[in-house]
Amino acid sequence: MSSPNLPAVLVLSICFGAAVVTLADAQTSGAPATTTPPMPDTPAFRDPKTGQIWTPENVGGKGGPVSPEDRAFNPSGQSVNSSQVVEEMAQVHKVGTVPVTAGPTVPLVMLDNVALQVQPGGRWQAVLYLQNNSGSAQSPVLGCGFTNGGNMVQNTRVTLPAVPPGDRVGLVVTGPGSSVFVDSVSCNVISPQ
After folding, report:
1. Which fold has domain 86-191?
2. Is the pTM of this model over 0.90?
């Protein structure tokens, strides 16, 4: 039972076994809360949960220094020493085999499925796969660049142990600490060519 004299209504709902308590404004007319609509021809977005209408005039603009949570969107706002090349000896794990097809149109070794991951409180990582298409063991050297907004954050040179002919291996390349913002990684084969 709710009283029309109460200024707010307490709503309790059970969601996936956890109680969620929200405070909702009660209006005596029963009409939903309204917000000022945007001017015509102005881009706008209505938040489906809050009903708030966001326009270029009310987004951001809080002033003051950029918070750590927002630095990822301001690549020039972080300072890192990216001129140094980090050397790494990677461990590989065999994940399968590939046909030995190296030749004029197929490289000796190939990279694929490069994915960027972060370990909370740890480091950024590039997870990738390499296949040896040649008929002999290869000890590839890779180059991986961790960037934020197109700016180099860390350049890593990775040396792999000998990969047997026809093997497909997976490996992890360690990047900078997770306190530094990274939005992409690209890796390439330095040798063999």
Report:
1. Immunoglobulin-like (2.60.40)
2. no
